User: What shape does this take?
Amino acid sequence: MKLNKEFRFFAYLLESYAAHKNMSASEVLRMLDEKNLTDFVFGMYEIYHCESIDNAFMDLDSLIETGKPAW
Assistant: This one.
């Protein structure tokens, strides 16, 4: 089974953000799910994959805290 590029990047983003926050990827996914943000973050592939990972982390911080993107 071959995973599409969006899913591979989403998994990479979750794992990288989790490591950055000293959490597990499942904890990050749970937080996104609880706030109904998982589909939004998954859909941000076109923006997140071409920016600095730090920008994506800032956006995830804002989304988790406020429910709104940093921009």
User: Anything to note?
Assistant: The two ends are 36 Å apart (CA to CA).
